[in-house]
Amino acid sequence: MKTISIVLAEDHHVVRQGLRALLTAEPDFTVVGESASGLEVADLVERVKPDVLVLDFVMPGLNAPDIVRRVLRVSPHTRALVLSMHANPAYVVEAMQSGAAGYVLKGSSAAELVRAIRAVAEGARHLSPPLSEEMVEAYSKRAVPTGLDLYRTLTQREREVLHLAAEGQTSGQIGARLNISPRTVEVHRANFMRKLGLRGQSDLVRYAVGRGILTVDG
Fold it and tell me: CATH for 150-211?
């Protein structure tokens, strides 16, 4: 029996513990790493090269689509499975377009998650019901005419600063987290605010909630 190595990326400790207990109960699964920070997931994956990365859509620092893009650059064979409370097609499409191999709703059964991990490990795509490939394709076609996604115009560093600023962290805290000066943080903040047409913290928070960077219910 081939063993499937897994990294878990989930910022809620109790949820992560539950996932670990669930997955390690499967004889062919082994959890080789865990992360609670979106900024650290790619480095962890690069070190341990798991078969599958199971990650929450909303993570501190970066959300799933940005994490998946980073992970695929450093460990192309790793298959990413997004675990999310959001059934909104926009979230699903963004995750799949970033390179995720599957999307499972947090309301799904344990058996569904196990099936999804095995499916993506074998090279298949997996969407948990009621999600479907047809839904993703239909939404993608409708979304095309809306024009340029301004978020994609941001640099990697601007995205990192945006996520942390939306969480309410100060320039000093962000600088310490990213190993850059508070002044550099302010420059990145000014750049992404200008690019996105945001005028203040309230605009930023609303944008982050709409984008799936933050959730209003935690």
Answer: 1.10.10.10
